[in-house]
Amino acid sequence: PRPLSEVYRPDSILQIRTDEALDDVLNKFIQKRIHIAYVLNTENEFVWLLTLEDIVEEIIKTEIEDETDTE
């Protein structure tokens, strides 16, 4: 198997904080052309992963479903 260092690029995921505004986070996703971020709280602890899809769903106030989603 390939080592993680061969496939992981630090610039391929954003780091954001729980107190950042949704608009600011969306702009970061767009500017950096990245679709995933890890979220840290004020103590620099990992809280969750956030995707561009999560933000779009929040904006349009509905779940985005695709052919792989199950009910």
Kindly list the characteristics that best describe this protein.
globular; 3 strands; 71 residues; three-stranded mixed beta sheet; alpha+beta
Helix content: 25-40%
Q: How would you classify the helix and strand content by structural class?
A: alpha+beta
**Structural shape:** globular
Mean pLDDT, to the nearest integer, reads: 89
**Widest β-sheet, arrangement of strands:** 1-2-3
**Count of helix runs:** 3
Through-space gap between termini: 35 Å
Q: What is the H/E order?
A: HEHEEH
Radius of gyration equals 14 Å
Largest sheet features: 3 strands, mixed
DSSP strand count: 3
Model description:
By secondary structure, the protein is α+β, with helices and mostly antiparallel strands. It is built from three helices and three strands; from the N terminus they run H-E-H-E-E-H. The protein has helices at 4-7, 22-32, 52-60; strands at 14-17, 36-40, 46-51. A three-stranded mixed β-sheet has the order 1-2-3. Helix 2 (22-32) links the parallel strand 1 (14-17) and strand 2 (36-40). It is globular, with a radius of gyration of 14 Å. The protein starts with a helix and ends in an 11-residue tail after the last helix. The model has no long low-confidence stretch (mean pLDDT 89).
Set down the secondary structure blueprint.
Elements: H1 4-7, E1 14-17, H2 22-32, E2 36-40, E3 46-51, H3 52-60
